[in-house]
Amino acid sequence: MRRTLLLIALLFGPLSHAGQFYLGGQIGYYDLSAEGQDVTPVGINLQGGYRFSPFVGLELRAGTGISRDDAASVEVGVEHNLGAYLNAGVPLSDWVRLYGLLGYTTGEVEISVSGQSRTQQEQDLSYGAGFGLGATEQLSVTIEYMQWIDKGGVDVSGLTLGVIYLF
Predict the structure, then answer these.
(1) Model confidence over 6-35: pLDDT tens digits?
(2) Going from the N-terminus, what domains does the chain have, and what CATH number goes with each?
(3) Of 15, 35, 47, 146, which one has the fewest beta carbons inside 10 Å?
(4) In 35-95, where do the E strands start and end?
(5) Residues 6 or more apart from 18 whose CB is under 8 A from it?
């Protein structure tokens, strides 16, 4: 019982830390494999969440592709992705935070082969890691790698650059 209480105290932080809501956005490349082809369309994500402490939070994300990419006779684009994630991190200083993400993503890609298009929707366990650099007390810049989906012949991962505003 003591170990459980200690773990809860460590995860949900000191009493002096009030929780914080945050909103942000990201832009980056999706590394997408489908139909045996590897493409890198550009996408954007909107994110919002709540940090219970400096160490743990929950967040939701919604994203879409803003460009398509092709290889050989296959053109692929991300139609949308939605996810919910646990965000666990360690502040390395007052301005730098290293974090990991674990959650679940659902997404849809459009695949066009020789003029014939189809969409494929998949859901999968997702994970990633990144770090945030505080520009001010309320504004952070993030760099992050995520593995969103690796299922059903579709593999979607990517590197993003983002901005987060803490309320």
Answers:
(1) 555 555 555 445 689 999 999 999 888 876
(2) 2-166 (2.40.160.20)
(3) 15
(4) 37-39, 42-51, 56-65, 69-71, 74-91
(5) none
